[in-house]
Write a structure and sequence with these properties.
547 residues; alpha+beta; Ubiquitin-like (UB roll); DNA polymerase, domain 1; 4 domains; 4-stranded mixed beta sheet; 17 helices; 17 strands
Length: 547
């Protein structure tokens, strides 16, 4: 008979970044052992344990592996390498390249992507084999960059491009770069090599290793335990699932004779770092917006307040962590609309009732009548990127494109949006499949950062029109709880983007939000203005795609 004591004390030994370590054989994942037991914070938990975002990717004996779905007992005696354990010259090579292209914004997904691409590089994959890169990146999700700048960084590293060497010594003002990133992200953001390597100071990374962990109990309260694994087990967390129904817009179109009609559905912001905060007794809670704005999705999060209250109650540091499923169920969504616009630019926008949404729409387009409608569904927020504003801009820009197309003065693949701040973006969907962006938004400050944000805005807008949506039932419950079910465009689905930036002698203003709206209007026009989003049509070929 096996001695129960020996089971409890059995240890698993392996090597992490050159150091031999041992952890209890208690059935946890490799990610849980690394982050929770050993304090190794380089791999990130974006969807843990769905195994679908790639943020926790590490190298196991040199091969990329998603650590949140890898049982730690399977790696006994093996060598684990995180981004921190790469050879210094390789680590610098990747950080230089990603800085030079803008291939990292918040830096949350980058450590896992670097490990994936380093594994691909070890196979002697060619610098121009971008199909292989797309296949590798299919295991990852990046919401910020739009993939293109990551692919460019790959080509730099593998080709040994002198651009990387120049990036080390060129006079680049990272204060200006950080300022531009903050303007574009609507939240304080730093640009540096440390950020590229995942050291942007995320809440979960900075929490004391011995802090207690709190997670939602599913009934409005919180379960507190010694580890995330234990807390989730006590809370009875259920693995997320992908719904079997297609996303549908929840609102009926307003009655009338319309030149254009548009209905949108529920869309997930899909930021990768889930809501998290920590606090010591009597202290101030750590921000959940450490190095990124979450596209407005964390503006109403209560994790900091909860961390402070629980730290006071338990007299110990507490970190509060939401799972991916928690974020999807309870996090705010973009308010769905149903709109009709007349040839003269007037019209009606019906929108799911949301505090501040009517005012936001009227401020940008007073010619629209706004009707708020009560709908059973997930929470919505006017703080989500351009909520209401972008929709009004899209309708007017698409109408202008349609009129120009019918008059023969222009083609329907181009749209222009001017923001309330004065940024102007023109986006054209070329017959050659290239998306061309022309952007004016004051002083550029840092062309690399601004270009990256423009490409990221193109990526998000293309996905919104063509593929992104959540299935919500008649009781308002979301059935799409896995990160892959959101419909975010993969690297292989992303067309090439060319960005032209114009230096202006005026204060810098946000430009990527104008690019976001102009891109949506342009691709919608290119597809013939179908009423319902997502259209289910590929950006690259306009062919029908599965939802």
């Amino acid at each position: 008979m096996t001695d129960p004591t020996s089971i409890e004390t059995a240890q698993i030994t392996f090597v992490v970044d050159g150091e031999e370590v041992s952890v209890p054989d208690n059935g946890v994942s490799l990610l849980a052992a690394l982050r929770g037991r050993l304090g190794v914070r380089a791999p990130k938990a974006g969807c843990n344990p769905q195994g679908q975002c790639g943020c926790c990717t590490v190298l196991v004996d040199g091969a990329p592996r998603v650590s949140c779905v890898t049982p730690v007992r399977r790696i006994a005696g093996r060598v684990i390498t995180t981004v921190d354990g790469l050879a210094e010259e390789d680590r610098e090579r990747w950080s230089d390249a990603l800085l030079a292209t803008g291939g990292s914004q918040c830096g949350f997904c980058t450590p896992g992507i670097v490990c994936r691409l380093e594994g691909l590089r070890s196979k002697n994959t060619a610098a121009d084999d971008l199909d292989a890169v797309d296949r590798a990146l299919a295991a990852h999700l990046c919401r910020c960059t739009g993939w293109q700048t990551i692919r460019e960084a790959w080509s730099m590293v593998v080709s040994g491009s002198s651009v990387v060497e120049r990036a080390r010594g060129e006079e680049r003002n990272f204060d200006d770069a950080s300022r531009r990133a903050t303007i574009e992200g609507h939240s304080t953001q730093q640009v540096s090599a440390d950020v590229v390597l995942g050291r942007g100071g995320f809440s979960e990374d900075t929490a004391p290793l011995d802090s207690l962990v709190a997670v939602p109990d599913g009934e409005g309260g919180w379960v507190v335990a010694d580890s995330l694994t234990e807390a989730r087990a006590l809370a009875g967390k259920v693995q997320g699932r992908h719904g079997t129904t297609s996303p549908e817009p929840p609102l009926a179109l307003p009655e009338g004779e319309w030149e254009l009609t548009l209905r949108t559905g529920w869309v997930e912001p899909a930021y990768l770092e889930t809501d998290a905060s920590w606090c010591e007794p009597g202290g101030e809670p750590f921000t959940s917006l450490a190095n990124g704005g979450a596209f407005g999705g964390k503006s109403t999060t209560n994790v900091g307040h909860v961390a402070r209250e629980l730290a006071y109650e338990h007299r110990q540091a507490i970190r509060v962590v939401l799972s991916r499923e928690d974020v999807v169920r309870d996090g705010p969504k973009r308010p769905p609309i149903a709109a009709g616009v007349r040839a003269d630019g007037s019209g009606v926008i019906r929108v799911v009732r949301t505090e501040g949404i009517a005012e936001a729409i009227r401020n940008i387009a007073p010619q629209f009548v706004v009707e708020e409608v009560d709908v059973v569904g997930p929470p919505t927020s006017v703080d989500i990127r351009g909520a209401g504003v972008a929709e009004a801009q899209i309708l007017l820009a698409a109408l202008a494109a349609k009129n120009a197309d019918e008059s023969g003065d222009n083609n329907a693949h181009s749209a222009t949006v001017t923001s309330a701040e004065g940024a102007s973006a023109t986006v054209a969907i070329g017959l050659d499949g290239v998306v061309r962006v022309d952007l004016k938004c004051g002083r550029v400050l840092d062309a690399i950062v601004l270009r990256s944000y423009a490409i990221g805005a193109v990526h998000m807008a293309l996905g919104w029109v063509t593929s992104e949506g959540l299935s919500v039932d008649e009781d308002g419950m979301i059935s799409d709880l896995t990160i892959r079910s959101f419909g975010v465009l993969r690297s292989a689905d992303m067309p090439h983007v060319e960005v032209t930036l114009h230096e202006e002698d005026s204060e810098p203003v946000n430009g990527s939000d104008a690019v976001f709206a102009a891109t949506a209007a342009a691709v919608w026009s290119a597809q013939g203005w179908p009423t319902d989003w997502p259209t289910g049509r590929s950006v690259l070929s306009n062919a029908r795609v599965a939802q």
